[in-house]
Give the backbone structure.
Amino acid sequence: MTGRVLVVGGTGPTGPDVVRLLLDRGADVTVLHRGLHEPDARHEPEGLPDVPHMHADPHFADHLRAALGDRSFDTVVATYGRMRVLAEVFAGRCERFVAVGGNPVHAGHLNRHATFPTGMRLLAGEDSPRARPGAGDRDRFATRVREAEEAVLAAGARGAFAATYLRYPMVYGRRSMLGF
């Protein structure tokens, strides 16, 4: 992947590694994040590559539009934020939109009682049951993840950009929110 690439969430758990790989492949990378996790030697002992940063809250369309101005990118790699909002804002501003989500889209991932037999199917496939509205907060979150994925792919189907949606099963490593 080369050209102008914007990494949304580029300072989070996986962002610095994504940035490094893009730079190694010759991309012109910019990072967009809220500004709450500025990299420093304490958190990034090997150093985060020196790339331009844009500060905006990727949860809100108005914040994003204000920060972007009239800029566009060849590729947007979205590793954080509300994917539905990001897909809306970047429609027509990029050729490729790569969204990174997770497995909560599958029924039983967050609420094992949402499926029978109990829990998410191991090695879930694209045709596995998806999360749907239920009574608990976990079901609501999983349903929102599913809706975000559907919004990105629908924008791609409308021709807003070439859409790719990746699901991390779990994030491991020194920047994992789980502390692995």
The domain at 4-168 is CATH 3.40.50.720 (Rossmann fold). Strands lie at 4-8, 28-33, 53-55, 73-78, 94-102, 162-168. The chain is about 25% helix and 20% strand. The chain has a mean pLDDT of 80.
